[in-house]
C-alpha cells in the first residue's frame, strides 16, 4: 500500500463475459475493485492543480526527545523576584523622602536648615533682621502707632499725631514681644515729630542715613504696625523727593511736609515708623498716606505714602531732647494763599508781606515779589515755599529766584529760627 503520490492505476484483467441470466445492475461487478474481493485495493488522491506546488507536511518524530520547560520557568521566576525586590526598595526610598515613614511615624528624620535660610546682611531679609529690633509699637489710650529707637538709653522718635492725647497709659512693645512703659519728652505739632522715653536701657538704636543723598528709584523698606499688625515690613522705592504736602485735621494744626514719597505699602498704624534704605539706614519717618477714601477710617494704601526726611526729623528730635521744644525754620515773610496770580497762568509763591529785618528783607525781597524757585526746586504756590523752608535747618543759606514786575532776579537768603 502506498501513500498515493507514486501510485499508478493497474491494468484491469480482461473482462469476463457476464454470467448468463445475471442482473443488469451488476453487469460490471467483475471489473469493480470494490465488488471484486480479489482485486487489489488502492487509495486514489485527486490530482493537484497544475499551478500549485505541493509541499510535504512536517512529520513529528514520536521517538524524538521532548525539550524541558524547567529552564524557562526558572528564568521567569528569577526575573520576577528581582523586579519585585527593586520595586520595593525604590518605593521605600521614595516614601521615606516624601515624609511617609513606616509604622505610625509621621515625617522623616529632622533635616538641617537649608543654606538659603541664612540671608546675606545686605539682602532685604538681612536688612529687615537688622532693623526690626529697633522698631517699636506705640500704644496710646487704645490707639496704635509706630516708632523707632534713636538712642541706646531709650529715646524713641515717632509722629506727633501718634502721641496726641497721651497719658499715663503710654507704652511700647518690641519685636521680641517684650513691653515697657514710656513718657512723653516733647512734641512739635507743626513738623509732626515727637520724642518719647522708654523706661528700659541698652536698646538697639537705628543707624541714620542722609535724606539729602537719596534718589528717585532707590529701594526702601517701611517698618511699623499697620492696622495693629506688629512687626510688619513692606518694600517699595523712592517715588519722588520734596513732595510738598499740607495736612492736618480741620480746626487743628496745619502741617507742612517736603516729603519723601514712596510706593511701599503704608497704612494706619505705620505712622512714626522708619523708612530705611537698602543698607538699613533710616532716611525718613512714615507720616502721611494719600487715599481715595472719604474718611480716615476708609483710608488705605494705594501706593502713595509720604515720610518726613530724616535730616529734618533728627534735627527736630534733637531740639526736643535738648530743650523740650523744636525750632521752626522761617524765611521772614508771609505768602498769599494759592498760586502767584490766582489765574493759573504763572506759578510761584507771592509774598504778601515781608518782615522787617527778617531773612527775606535782608536778602532784598519785597512784598509782592513772587518766589519761583528755592535751591532749584520749582514752586507752584505758597504751600511749596513753607514746606521747603521748614526742611532746612535754621542758619542754612538757600538761593532763591523771584519775579518782580516783568523781570527775574536771584538772591541768597539765610534762613532763621522763629521767635517762639
TrEMBL record:
Query: Which parts of the chain span the membrane according to its record?
Result: 72-95
Query: Residues annotated as region Disordered?
Result: 1-63
Query: Which PROSITE patterns does the record match to this protein?
Result: PDZ
A GO molecular function for this record? serine-type endopeptidase activity
Compositional bias annotation for Pro residues: 10-21
InterPro entries, A to Z: Chloro_Bact_Ser_Proteases, PDZ, PDZ_sf, Peptidase_S1_PA, Peptidase_S1C
| Gene Ontology biological process terms, A to Z | proteolysis
Tell me the keywords, alphabetical order. Answer: Hydrolase, Membrane, Protease, Transmembrane, Transmembrane helix
Per UniProt, the ranges with Low complexity bias are 37-46
What sequence ranges are listed for the domain PDZ?
A: 320-381
| Origin: domain of life | Bacteria
* Protein name as it appears in the record: Peptidase S1
Amino acid at each position: 500500500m502506498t501513500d498515493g503520490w507514486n501510485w499508478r492505476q493497474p491494468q484491469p484483467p480482461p473482462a469476463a463475459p457476464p454470467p448468463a441470466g445475471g442482473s443488469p445492475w451488476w453487469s460490471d461487478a467483475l471489473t469493480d475493485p470494490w465488488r471484486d474481493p480479489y482485486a487489489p485495493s488502492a487509495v486514489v488522491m485527486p490530482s493537484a492543480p497544475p499551478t500549485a506546488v505541493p509541499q510535504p507536511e512536517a512529520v513529528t518524530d514520536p521517538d524524538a526527545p521532548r525539550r524541558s520547560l524547567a529552564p524557562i520557568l526558572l528564568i521567569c521566576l528569577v526575573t520576577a523576584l528581582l523586579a519585585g525586590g527593586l520595586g520595593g526598595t525604590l518605593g521605600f526610598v521614595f516614601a521615606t523622602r516624601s515624609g511617609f515613614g513606616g509604622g505610625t511615624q509621621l515625617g522623616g528624620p529632622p533635616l538641617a536648615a537649608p543654606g538659603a535660610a541664612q540671608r546675606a546682611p545686605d539682602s532685604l531679609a538681612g536688612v529687615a533682621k537688622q532693623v526690626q529690633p529697633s522698631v517699636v509699637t506705640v500704644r496710646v489710650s487704645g490707639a496704635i502707632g509706630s516708632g523707632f529707637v534713636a538712642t541706646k538709653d531709650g529715646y524713641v522718635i515717632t509722629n506727633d499725631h501718634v502721641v496726641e492725647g497721651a497719658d499715663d497709659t503710654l507704652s511700647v512693645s518690641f519685636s521680641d514681644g517684650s513691653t515697657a512703659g514710656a513718657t512723653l519728652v516733647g512734641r512739635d505739632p507743626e513738623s509732626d515729630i515727637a520724642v518719647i522715653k522708654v523706661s528700659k536701657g541698652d536698646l538697639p538704636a537705628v543707624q541714620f542715613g542722609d535724606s539729602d543723598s537719596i534718589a528717585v528709584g532707590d529701594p526702601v523698606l517701611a517698618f511699623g504696625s499697620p492696622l495693629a499688625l506688629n512687626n510688619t515690613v513692606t518694600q517699595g522705592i523712592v517715588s519722588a523727593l520734596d513732595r510738598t504736602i499740607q495736612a492736618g485735621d480741620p480746626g487743628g494744626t496745619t502741617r507742612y511736609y517736603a516729603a519723601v514719597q514712596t510706593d511701599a505699602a503704608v497704612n494706619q498704624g505705620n505712622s512714626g515708623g522708619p523708612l530705611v534704605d537698602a543698607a538699613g539706614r533710616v532716611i525718613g519717618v512714615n507720616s502721611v498716606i494719600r487715599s481715595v477714601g472719604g474718611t480716615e477710617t476708609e483710608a488705605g494704601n494705594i501706593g502713595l505714602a509720604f515720610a518726613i526726611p530724616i535730616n529734618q526729623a533728627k534735627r527736630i528730635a534733637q531740639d526736643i531732647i535738648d530743650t523740650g521744644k523744636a525750632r521752626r525754620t522761617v524765611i521772614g515773610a508771609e505768602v498769599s494763599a494759592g498760586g502767584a496770580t490766582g489765574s493759573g497762568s504763572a506759578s510761584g509763591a507771592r509774598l504778601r508781606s515781608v518782615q522787617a529785618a527778617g531773612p527775606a528783607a535782608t536778602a532784598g525781597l519785597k512784598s509782592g515779589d513772587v518766589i519761583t524757585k528755592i535751591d532749584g526746586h520749582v514752586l507752584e504756590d505758597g504751600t511749596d515755599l513753607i514746606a521747603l523752608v521748614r526742611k532746612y535747618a535754621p542758619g542754612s543759606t538757600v538761593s532763591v529766584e523771584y519775579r518782580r514786575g516783568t523781570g527775574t532776579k536771584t538772591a541768597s537768603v539765610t534762613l532763621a529760627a522763629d521767635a517762639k
